[in-house]
Design a protein that fits this description.
- Its cofactor is NAD(+).
- Belongs to the adenosylhomocysteinase family.
- One of its GO terms (cellular component) is cytosol.
- It is an enzyme of class 3 (hydrolase).
- By secondary structure, the chain is α/β, with parallel strands linked by helices.
- It has two domains: about 220 residues, Adenosylhomocysteinase-like (Rossmann fold, 3-Layer(aba) Sandwich), CATH 3.40.50; about 160 residues, 3-Layer(aba) Sandwich (Rossmann fold), CATH 3.40.50.
- The protein is about 45% helix and about 15% strand.
- The protein is built from 16 helices and 15 strands.
- The strands form two sheets. The protein has an eight-stranded mixed beta sheet, with helices on both faces.
- Helix 6 links the parallel strand 4 and strand 5.
- It is globular, with a radius of gyration of 22 Å.
Length: about 400
Amino acid sequence: MDSGELKMGWARQYMPVLAEIRKRFEAEKPLAGATVGMALHVEAKTAVLVETMAAGGAEVHITGCNPLSTQDDVARALGRVPGVHCYATRACSVDEYYDAMDKVLDASPNITIDDGMDLIHRIHTLRRDLLDTIIGGCEETTTGIQRLRAMAEEGALEFPVIAVNDTPMKRSFDNIHGTGESALSSIMITTNTIIGGKWFVVAGYGYCGRGLARMAHGLGAKVIVTEVDPRRALEAHMDGYHVMTMKDAAAIGEIFVTTTGNTSIITGEHFPLMRDGAILANAGHFNVEIDIPWLEEHAEEKETRDSIDTYLVNGNRISVLAEGRLVNLATTKGMGHPVEVMDLSFALQALCTEYMYKNGGDLTGGVYEVPYEIDATVAHLKLASLGVTIDELSEEQKTYLQSWTAGT
């Protein structure tokens, strides 16, 4: 086996939930006749999801959702899986990135799976000829859901999309544990610097931010949180972190990680205030959270190492990891979220794809929650794989919870 197949084999052994789903998919072929178009991070864990879709009868066309997150050996191995067509390449140009998107869309998918809404955006703007054949889609990440909800509010979203990101089995594990652990791992292995004792700035206290803050604190960091939402800022304060503006944090922080999914979080207002040796990384989504163009234009010097660009600003060195792209995937040694975490997230994707293929034709355009039954099924499958058993509600307890008179 080549390196791509070896990586996929390693991932499979730690993805028991998806393995159970694949057994059923192989037997029932619930996706027979489906053409699934995917724009995801093309690495080993994603490959196991793609194999599962193909085992369920789908014809899968996939490309990357970030120019630096594709692992070329995995992409080549995926291309050899029956029923799978992979167009992703690492370090592609912007034109090559969108050319690959178009190759996916040229297959006329009737189901889309996005991580950042690129396929859905392209369908609604440049490939509207496909709208009549789309049954529905699934969206993996916070940034994509934010954009989809904005579309839906304007009445611009013309087919149903399941917000896979917004369900407890995704947020509580993928966003908190996955982002928290993998972002820190990538920062440490890329920079070979210590976390303990450092002022660690987390921009945004959503699910990803709180996971990152918790993990950094566990390693001994002094954690600062910046926020624009007063409720989340108060939550961070009550969780024991220092809360302040980014302008105030800029002069204190030694490591900065953005997790907002928004733009212009660390900008030209902040760079000149930073101390020598500051390290900046993005664990949000698109590479717009750190103002790289400002650094390119205003820095006195630039020095490039493997996954590290160091800019000299006012005589101080400021290092940006992975060109401001997703630090847990886009660094040379970044492996993304832990395998066990993505087992849960991709199990949700597989089951939500099945649900959308069966039921999407009866839904109107808009953003839909993951059905409770799917979320609970994934949780039960994971518990079973761990050998963990839990209690069940008795009929008396069910009646009590559903009554407004019982117990009064």
